[in-house]
């Protein structure tokens, strides 16, 4: 089983280690620049991209305002189509539901479509503890699983691996999970893809239970939608007898007309394609066609708490395109593992602390994993103002567990700025002592002044200057 993110260090420590890996930085730079250049080209083809982006944001906001209504409509539609809906308040409940459903089939193996929701709740590990083996079928997820690794990118989980590393993983680990890698395997991409195809084909044809997530769930019809590039999802969604889909409650869209907007936004923003190769949709069960049993597990796991935050809730608009990762200068250098979450990069820096809270050192550090350059907001297809949420979460971190000295300094500043007379006295005192202010602060303040210049203090405040000027004019 692959490792998890539990117990990882705070972002500054993890990033410091990652940036020292020259091979990792090379892999990340090459991959992210390739994807973002492709995205820019296909986005520039559309003269209505700004309107599409605004429409996507508006649809998501409408859903979030009336989420209870759309979720109940989705449940009714899925049930009417022959599916069964389960509600999971947290990761533990979701894992228990899925484990019980798999056990009820009598099988101990499942094939999986790439799913961030199941990674978020640690489903593979929970199934493993119950004696059930989960086989990842997405090529990148397969690489991560075989390498006892964790994903480092939303779109390309194995972005931190190069071809030689992948060849070695296939050569040494494939046999433990099924069909072994062929003798003399090279690092040619076609050879690696063929080795994965042969390895996975046996699982597709023999495994009777599949687990998926979904990019979208259409409330009006109960239809679930998965966008992918390889066809592994199509195999998992059609061949097994039982299909279990774990879906975050924010993934619902009201109608097929709304879905049309996102089918334009997502491929261009994620893979830089006008249209993704495979768009799979399924609605309940159909006798003689596809799975005979369908279960939908609707996952909360911190989403309702996020919804209650009027600033932070915009993170729930996210359609998992990864455009913000590919443009982010911090992610490009630190990589995904430094974020200690299945959601890396700028979106992870605002989504993870809200889903998990800011109680741990790692989660409290994530809102600071950004230069606030704003590039992530510019490329987001649903206009999530990530810098705004980052600053908002930094306030929460300081309020909740900020340094005592920092809290005291902020309290003192608030007391001074809260009264104009106190502010005037402080400004006059600062002006009089301006020659005594050091260029470098001692103690904890040294880290701040090592990278910043202390602003020059003027000899007098603007108020004093204004008062003197108008007094002289009045005397004339």
Automatic annotation (TrEMBL):
Residues 399-470 form the Lactate utilization protein B C-terminal domain. GO terms for molecular function: 4 iron, 4 sulfur cluster binding; metal ion binding. One of its GO terms (biological process) is lactate metabolic process. It comes from the Bacteria. This is L-lactate dehydrogenase complex protein LldF. Keywords: 4Fe-4S, Electron transport, Iron, Iron-sulfur, Metal-binding, Repeat, Transport. PANTHER family: LACTATE UTILIZATION PROTEIN B. Residues 71-297 form the LUD domain. It comes from Marinactinospora thermotolerans DSM 45154. Residues 315-384 form the 4Fe-4S ferredoxin-type domain.
């Amino acid at each position: 089983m692959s490792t998890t993110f539990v117990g990882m260090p705070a972002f500054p420590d993890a990033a410091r280690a990652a940036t020292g890996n020259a091979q990792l930085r090379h892999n990340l730079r090459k991959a992210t620049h390739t994807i973002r250049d492709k995205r820019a080209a296909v986005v520039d083809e559309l003269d209505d991209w700004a309107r599409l982006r605004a429409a996507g944001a508006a649809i998501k906001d409408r859903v979030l305002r009336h989420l209870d209504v759309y979720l109940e409509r989705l449940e009714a539609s899925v049930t009417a189509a022959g599916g069964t809906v389960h509600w999971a308040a947290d990761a533990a409940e979701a894992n228990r539901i899925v484990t019980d459903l798999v056990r009820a089939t009598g099988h101990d193996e499942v094939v999986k479509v790439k799913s961030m929701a199941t990674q978020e709740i640690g489903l593979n590990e929970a199934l493993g503890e119950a004696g059930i083996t989960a086989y990842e079928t997405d090529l990148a997820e397969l690489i991560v699983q075989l390498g006892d690794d964790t994903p480092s990118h939303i779109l390309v989980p194995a972005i931190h691996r190069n071809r030689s590393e992948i060849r070695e993983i296939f050569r040494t680990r494939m046999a433990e999970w099924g069909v072994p890698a062929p003798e003399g395997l090279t690092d040619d991409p076609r050879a690696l893809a063929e080795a994965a195809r042969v390895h996975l084909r046996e699982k597709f044809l023999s495994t009777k239970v599949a687990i998926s997530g979904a990019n979208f769930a259409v409330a009006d019809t109960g239809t679930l939608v998965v966008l992918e590039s390889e066809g592994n999802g199509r195999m998992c969604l059609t061949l097994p007898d039982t299909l279990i889909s774990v879906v975050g409650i924010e993934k619902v869209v009201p109608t097929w007309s709304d879905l049309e907007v996102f089918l334009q936004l997502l491929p261009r923003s994620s893979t830089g394609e006008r249209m993704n190769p495979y768009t799979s949709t399924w609605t309940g069960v159909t006798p003689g066609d596809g799975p005979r049993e369908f279960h939908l597990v609707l996952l909360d796991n911190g989403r309702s708490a996020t919804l209650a935050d009027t600033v932070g809730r915009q993170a729930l608009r996210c359609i998992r395109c990864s455009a913000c990762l590919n443009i982010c200068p911090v992610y490009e250098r630190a990589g995904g593992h430094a974020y200690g979450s299945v959601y890396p990069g700028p979106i992870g820096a605002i989504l993870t602390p809200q889903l998990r809270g800011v109680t741990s050192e790692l989660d409290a550090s994530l809102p600071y994993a950004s230069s606030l350059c704003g590039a992530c907001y510019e490329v987001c297809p649903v206009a999530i103002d990530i810098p705004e949420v980052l600053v908002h979460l930094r306030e929460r971190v300081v309020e909740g567990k900020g340094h005592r000295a920092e809290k005291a300094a902020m309290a003192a500043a608030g007391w001074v700025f809260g009264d104009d007379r106190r502010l005037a006295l402080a400004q006059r005192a600062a002006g009089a002592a301006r020659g005594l202010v050091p260029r470098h602060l001692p103690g904890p303040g040294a880290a701040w002044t090592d990278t910043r210049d202390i602003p020059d203090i003027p000899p007098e405040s603007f108020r004093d200057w204004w008062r003197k000027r108008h007094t002289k004019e009045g005397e004339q």
